Batch of 2 targets.
Target 1
Amino acid sequence: MNPFGKQPVTGIEILEHEWRIVQVVPTTGAITVLHEFRVPFGPLPDDPAGRVAAKAGALRESLKQRRLRLTEARLCIPKSAVTVRYRRLPPSQNETELAQMARFEAERHIPFHAERHLIGYHVMGREELAGVDVLTVAVDGPVVEEVLTICAQAGIDVASADVSSLALYRLFLMRRAAPAGSPMKTGAGEAATATAGGASSATATALLHIGEESSEIVLLQNHIALFARSCSAGLRSLGEAMGLSVPVDPSGLDAMAMLPAAGRDSPDRPAELAGDAAALVYNPPEEEPAPGGLLDLNGSPEGRFERLAAAQEGAKQTPPDGPAFDGNQSLRPADSSATERTTEAQAAFQAWLERLTQEIRRTYEFAYREFNCPALSSLLISGAGARIGRMREYLERALGVSAGPLLGAVYPPPRLSPAAEAAGAGPPGDAALAIATALDNPERSERGVNLLPEAHLRRRRRQRQSYAVMTTAALALCALSLAGILFYRQNANIREAVEAYRQFIDANRARVAEIEKMEFEIQVFNEFRNPNKSALHILDYVCSLDVVERGAVKLTAFLFEQGKEVTLMGHAFTLADINQLNEDLARSPFFRKTEILDHPPTNLAQRTQPIYQFKITCLPKLDEGPAPGRSAKR
């Protein structure tokens, strides 16, 4: 894992008989699925403690085999365990006040033990005058506590808990906007409407997730979720009804084969649907409704599904004349008993499809009565059940609305990593709820819902703070250790360098003294060769100075030592004359430095005025010219 790149996030779909775990890395251009697997629990004991231990053991063993450690996991609780209601609250910008109003509304729909329920809310839209559209969610505390206990025993760090209906709704919000001129536009903050031929934009969209153990249904008007419910019409119930001991392979089923021949071959049915669901809009013709079509959605409640009920009744009485049941390979008839089993499986599959469409109709009926839901215009499908052959065509025939894939228009699109494909991960659409849960972060979005108990959140915050303190302390200790090591190493290098310099100086000290002696001898030799620096020449220069010529200063001694200093001694009547002599000597071309050593006053016999005796030392200038046979730069 790259510590400087995107960190993977984990989503866990909680089911009764298995958990689906997805680990994804969200990037700008795609959602990469690193791991996708299911953990089946098998037969579970009856007592709650044994059931928790069995599930935790299965999870721990599965994670150990894959060498995974799940941190920051986000749970997706099934809708069957959660109460979800749409409410429009009064306008408010105060989040505390909004949370109190959402809790009050949610408690009205909790039948018992409202005090132990965990309540959250999801903001879908704000209007300055109309109010705030929210979805209130409530789950019984023991349900979440049991899941947290399983995760704690399995070593899973849980960061948040969400609801499957909200995860399905967020998938819808992730859908990219349709191209310009498209009849449908979807996305966060945009109306999920479909219009055709100038029809009214007051239409509704249904989201359907056909999972392993249940199916989720969410009805939307524009981008507002009006109603959500779940039913047990999942693939597991289909397999049990068909008498299968193995999970149903949805890609081996054909939904359109369960319709009567008139319904399959009708010229009025929509064309084959594929590609981006944003462009899948279909309105059946008003003159001659398609078989099973749901045209008059806004009619009277008594006659709204009359034609659909008649079509379904005909489908029950008319045996399908399509190919033999194309389900699991073990169901293909080989003898009379196999033929009987295949017929029973066909009937079970047809009954399952009818039940699923009936649940969609019931959901719409309730939304129509309670929220005045407009006519359905489109149906977006996800989950493993979406892979049933020609399932979208069947739902179009049964409900008379356009149907398309929900995950096909999600941006960025989820895709399996090569490692996940090699490990046999299923299609991303099967794990749509887990992926949507993994991508949600309630701490960074006002739309997020976190149904974890406050005690768990406080404990987790304390653990994170303790971990942060310990990590900071460890990093500080490492930094101090590294600084100490660096300081010790630097001092050792300095000591080694000083010792090396000392040895070098000791080794070259005699050589340096010899070179200095040679340079001094060369300088003396050059001075002897230069007559301008001889004693007579210097004495003649001194005698030519003004203070000496006019007799203000009398010289009594001139000491000259070649290459060293020149000493002048004498007397003068005033100190000003002595200073003038010293300044003139300092400006001479022979000396680089002059100094008056002494000038005491002296009284001479037969003179009332004292005189000053002086002594001036002069240092000669060094020879600036190159010595014979040597370079000027040394």
Note: The chain has a mean pLDDT of 77.
Target 2
Amino acid sequence: MPLFLHPWALIGLAAVPVLVLVYFLRNRFRPWLVASLMLWRLPAQPRTVGARRERLRLPWLFWLELLVLVLLVLAATSPDWNIRRGGRPLIVVLDDSVSMRARSGGTTARERALRFLEQRLRQERHSAVRLILAGSTPRTLEGTGADVRSLRQRLEAWRCEAPASDLARAIGLATEWSRNQADVLVLTDQPPPEGLNPGEGLVWYAAGQRVANAGFVGAARTTAGERDRCFLEVLNGGTGTHQTELVIRVGTEVWDRKELSLAPGQRHRWVFNVPADAPVVTAVLGSDGLEEDNTVWLAPPPRRMVSVALALTNVALKSLVERTLQATGLYRPATQVPDLVIHEGAARAWPARTWTVEWLGPEEPVLFAGPFLPDRTHPLMEGLTLQGVLWAGGRQMEAPDLVPILLAGNVPLIAERAAAQGARHLTFVYDLEHSTLHESPDWPILFWNLLHWRGSRLPGLRDTNVRRGAEVAVVHEGRGVTVQGPDGWEWTADTGLDPCVFVPPRAGLYRVNRGAEGEWLAVNLLAEGETNLSGCDRGVWGTWRVDVRARQESAPWSTWLGLLACVCVLGHLYGVLAERRGAA
């Protein structure tokens, strides 16, 4: 806005109504009696004076005189306009973790940080503003507008729902973009970590505050025979003793209620059992500084039994394998189309989605005591030690597309081949009579891994209870998958990918529909770093660069206004002379 150094000069605008009055009166004539009008030159018939009001006809010279008058008054006030020229670009790193939602004194850390940013932009101008959301994985927001209005629109994506904030990576990304040409502003609720000293060009603003808070940092629900075992862990993340109430509901009914009194940093763990057919378990803590970690949901875990068909001709081997499968708790005999077939010799034609294990007994077994070379990234090898084991193998695998999973030197003992529609065909080379693997703990581990791996590829969710930010895989076998989540969130899977993977955007209960079937999916925060608010603080560290401030330059407009008024006066004189010349 203009700044008038001499605002009292505006009183000169009082001459405007005087000018209007002059033109209004000059158009009224007094009557004179004359003998004759014969020798008069009358280029135009003057208006007759009377009581009737007529519209005032103002010539163009009037408007020019009015403009001259206004320009002279403005020039007398000595107006100065402050021209704000853009400074350096600004890169803002936004802590997108849940702890920024902690409320203290009626405001959240996010709201206080946003006010600091807006105040900065009103005081100092930047040529561009870039935003980086520092969540579990930093990401940038589109746009570089530096005005507050456009900034607020872009900041709608700053929801503070991430289970963690990788500020180090986000600051590294901002520094790489900066190249000493931009300033970096970090908005968070924690003071700078040890080893990071914000200096010139890096400003760290912490908008947090230590508040009382207790939240869930651990929760699980697993199968345990005919019951489900539930586990809960609560942490006091505040600086003082915190008292709260824990309410557990199974479905809509209250299962248990407990009063908790926790010292700073104290944990409370609780294990309890619910029936296997129990619906979703909900645990709720009392209200405190951070509401997002006060609720957890535990959905029923998947109970997928793998149907296995045994086509083994060796009676002793078949009996041993069947007893081992029964001990896993994941086995059921196949009655129709099996999920897994363990056979000797040539296999019959099974459906495309059926997995097979071909058991090869070498005619001339070779005894191996090691070293064994397992593929530790393969789910079948998880937990195997093979220490002190004798393995009688030696028969070469003829299929060229088999990929070794376990080798003794350069001799493959277990191999796999991928087939269409996600099926797997495994080959075991093992002689029962001369080997000792079946007498070691690795034998049941191997078969449990086999059934668990196969069960994870059965239709449905692999896991029904996950942490916020984790990927969720759904095996659909060609049937359409739709997911409905909190706040009306929906997602439809691409049936061309099996399994399909998605990341739930926030904590809560989700309904995963696969064709006509549906399962509950529980997504919980369970982030100890966000529940612990004892390290929150408020303050500013670092300094802005000296030349980043928008330069204020005063521009004296009086001279220009005076020159413009002179031009208008010259135009007025020219107009008056032209009229007189025409009248002559």
Note: The radius of gyration is 42 Å.
